[in-house]
């Protein structure tokens, strides 16, 4: 994990921050993706509802806790942990924030006794697909939007036994 990044679970008072981080991270896709990213339609209420009773959010901050750099939502679906809205603000990119968030999610999955973690990644964002591949995720399904203007991979990583040390 990036030594300049610390993770913490989102508390009840953090939902507006989680929303702000998602909006800031996904803003660059506004008017670019067709259809538009659903992240840009999220509200504080919709984010809370998405994870209510089955998950939560993780917040990545600078090591000294002075700035929030990113967030990711997580919730259990059947026998795996689904991770969505992985968001790193522009000022936090290239610092290991995304990697730290995903390693944190793997820890959450392991603690819950889940052997698999999944994400959905648009093919029109090839750098994002490559990011997850570097972390050991593999595409297992290829789906299309009804408009056929874009598609996405469902990607998964099977988790082995917890690492020692």
UniProtKB/TrEMBL annotation:
Alphabetically ordered keywords of this record: Acyltransferase, Transferase
InterPro entries: Acyl_CoA_acyltransferase (IPR016181), Bact_Acetyltransf (IPR050832), GNAT_dom (IPR000182)
Pfam families, per the entry: Acetyltransf_1
EC nos: 2.3.-.-
The protein's enzyme class: transferase
Alphabetized GO MF terms: acyltransferase activity
Sequence ranges assigned to domain N-acetyltransferase in this UniProt record: 5-160
The UniProt record lists the keyword Plastid: no
Record keyword Acyltransferase present: yes
Record's protein name: GNAT family N-acetyltransferase
Organism for this UniProt entry: Paenibacillus xanthanilyticus
